[in-house]
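Session log. Operator J.P. requested a structure for one protein chain; no other inputs attached. Running the standard single-chain path with token output.
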Amino acid sequence: MCASSIAARYSIRVLLVIFTFAFSVVGFSSGKVGQDPATSQTDKPATAPAPAPVLPRGKKLMLKDGTYQVIREYQRNGDHVRYYSLERGDWEEVPASMVDWDATAKMAGDEEKAATAQVEKIHKQEEARRMDNVADVDASLQVGGKGAFLPEGEGMFVVEGKSVRIMDQVAAQMKADKLRTLEQIMSPVPMVPGKQNIVLPGARAALRLKSQTPEFYLREPPPDPEKTSTIQKSKRAGDNGPDVELIRAKVVRNGRQLESISTMFGEQVSKKRNSVSIQRWEVAPNVYRFTLSEALPPGEYILAQIAEEGLDIFVWEFGVDELGTTAPVKK
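Structure written below.
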């Protein structure tokens, strides 16, 4: 082989090496070798849009052209108003004649009312949340306004300040009016109506209260037919809870009259009892709070559950004494 042929082949190989090297440099600088530049650009993550600017909270200085400035405070100096702009973080001035003072005052009042309403709403939500948290824990059920807690167990409880006492149930009696019975016997025509009274023995209840605004809490047993309840004759008026009535008793001879029932030909015509208005609140599962609509004057009272057939004869009794007087209970 001649020298000229060898030189030609050597030159071709050098050119191939140079071409390959140049191609690799170009491919590396534009991304991966053999990658389409358009594809390379689409694979780049898209830039997230800038969030919308949040206007800082503050007072509003209303202007007569319908706009306003969000400010921290302002000072009126003669014909100019100097204010600190929360948007720009600096002190600025405008002519006082540009400020709508009536609208500024109204806006301040509206914002104050809205803030007060929001605080009350949050307070109510917190109170509701607190009651929800203690709903299933008897030991944590706070009652009254002085840090008292409802004891465990079922029954009716009375709360006076920090004092919490359980009330005993007593049995009332049905007694016929002797005078009406005698009139019926003596009358030749059986048109004399009959009368029966529901009474409690004794002129005074054993439980005496000093407060004229006590609160009452009834904890009923959970619905379990196999469990015997300590509450006698407990009845519920549907799914809304027990129908409890507060009645002021009338002190009669050797007893306290709770209800008077009139009958005619063996049928009930009317019944009368002196009821006192109370409100019922469900504060926990099977726990009900009863509050008074008005203060109780001194006297004898009972709490009774009302069923479809009438007043339950098993009632909770108590008496309210005048301040500074607590007479002994006569048995």
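Operator note: Helices lie at 3-29, 37-42, 101-134, 178-186.
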